[in-house]
Amino acid sequence: MSKQPSEVASMFDGVAAHYDVTNDILSAGNAVLWRIATVKALSAKRGEKILDIAAGTGTSSAAIAKTGAEVTALDFSAGMVEVGRKRQPHIEFVVGDAEDLPFGDDTFDAVTISFGLRNVNRPRTALAEMYRVLKPGGRLVICEFSTPTLAGVKLGYQAYLRHILPGIAKVTSSNGPAYSYLAESIEKWPDQQVLSTWIRGAGFTRVAHRNLTGGIVALHRGHKPATTSRRPGSAPA
Q1: Which of 16, 55, 88, 154 could link 148 by a cystine bridge, Cβ 3.0 to 4.6 Å?
Q2: pLDDT digit of tens for each residue in the chain (237 aa)?
Q3: How far is the C-alpha of 73 from the C-alpha of 33, rounded, in Å?
Q4: 146 is in an annotated binding site
């Protein structure tokens, strides 16, 4: 599976207008519950600076902003950002690359990314960038598709991804092939333990995860140490 950044960005440009509605349908409404869990885990406070990476049209950014935090929504799809700016005019949107974040060191109190790390060409490089822009003591929250923990759930989920999701996407989305990519990217994405190892490798401590919806999704957390004697370099892809 190729993940050339320009091709993936173009794909998301093409689904931007109906992206949120299609996601709600494909997740059988669970997308809302996953968003609530992510915002709760982020524990944003009034006045904090939060970076929401792969923010899409800003649905998660808007939910975070309700806490009173100052949210910056970043996405590499100009089409998504264009839609987001119209729907969420109170949110600052930036077109940018997760592997080369356009922010200075130690800028944000927390960084989050939901269902976007999987689409990054070099995810470990992106994790190193998240570490860099976090303030010492800052928090990382990642919500991402993962590996179901029960055999029966795993088999049923695989069947859904391969046979049911593409059919629903053809009806609900203007770009069915984009959701075929979605299914393939989920199947090829590493499990919870591997992602936890990548997060630790980027320098984060207190790394932990919990499964949502039987492990179909996992919520990962980590912290940048309050005092650091070194700054990890970009990890290999």
Answers
A1: 154
A2: 455 666 666 656 555 555 565 566 667 678 899 999 999 999 999 999 999 999 999 999 999 999 999 999 999 989 889 999 999 999 999 999 999 999 999 999 999 999 999 989 999 999 999 999 999 999 999 999 999 988 888 888 888 887 777 676 666 555 556 666 777 888 889 999 999 999 999 999 999 999 999 999 999 999 999 986 555 554 444
A3: 20
A4: no
75 is in an annotated binding site: yes
Helix (H, G, I), strand (E, B) or coil at 136: strand
Residue 98 annotated as binding?
A: yes
158 is in which domain, residue-wise? 5-223
Q: What number of CA atoms fall less than 13 Å from residue 2's CA on the CB side?
A: 7
Structural domains counted in the chain: 1
In SS3 terms, 27-79 reads as CCCHHHHHHHHHHHHHCCCCCCEEEEECCCCCHHHHHHHCCCCEEEEEECCHH
In-domain check, residue 24:
yes
Q: Structure tokens of 140?
A: 């990382």
CATH label of the domain that carries residue 95: 3.40.50.150
The CA distance from 145 to 38, in Å, is 13
